[in-house]
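User: I'll paste a sequence; please echo it back and then give the predicted structure.

Assistant: Echoing your sequence first, then the prediction.
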Amino acid sequence: MDIQFESAILERADELLEEVILSWTLNLLRECETEAKNLCPTLIKTLEYDVFSGTRAAASKSLDIDSVDKDNDLAAVEYVEDMYTFYKEVENESKPVMYMPTQTEINEKMRSILVDWLVEVHIKFDLSPETLYLTINLIDRFLSLKTVPRRELQLLGVSALLIASKYEEIWPPQVNDLVYVTDNSYSNKQILVMEKTILGSLEWYLTVPTQYVFLVRFTKAAISDPEVENMVHYLAELGLMNYETLKFPPSLLAASAVYAARCFLNKRPAWNDTLKFHTGYAAFEILQCAKRLALIHSRVGEGKLRAVFKKYSK
């Protein structure tokens, strides 16, 4: 077969595959239009613009996002790609399961109330973002293994916060402080016993790649300005409150938060080669999760759980 002819066939095959993927992507977005009329119209319009005008190909080359840190020993630029490859390989080992069917006394709403309260406590003690994400990870992993009565759900939450704080913070809150924020609902001894129970059940497995680990890397890949970065973290923390996001791997949630934030703020293209390279996801792979985050965002004003909204509205 003539080399030029063969090359033309292969090129056309690639074009057809891309057209199929883009068509599928648009159909996927339109499936949810009836369910969520207010579901981030910018998200849909931006993708359609990218598809039909060709701006999705605006960034044809992946940028070296670590060049600015080459003289920073703490950035570990020689190893950072290997580190994140490893994080993605092991992230599912510490991913909770969809545990609500096995819980007899708690439900999704109770979990949301707990996370909302923990966000407020997290702000009160001025803790790091890593602590919040690890706290929620510990709670969900424990609930994946053990049935917890309703009266002990807050105890689980505050004990998980204690563990995460000891792991991440230089100056973690004291147990007495945590007793106080629970309005003395639990004693020092109860918190310490639950702490030991959690650690034993999880076999002291605390070094896990949470969503925050990926958010740091992916916002850097997006070369985000403060507005975009703020929106990314806002959407990600809204996602923490929603039980349904447990079905997604942490890296996918982080990538979806970046994608949805760029769509909300009308950043074109919403996804590019640099983001695809560093996240490991093409745009069509994150659409389902991005729609979930957009839906959660659209409902923020409907409920009473507004800790994340208040945090990011300042």
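Residues 1-94+210-314 form a domain with the Cyclin A; domain 1 fold (CATH 1.10.472.10). Residues 65 and 221 are 6 Å apart (CA to CA).
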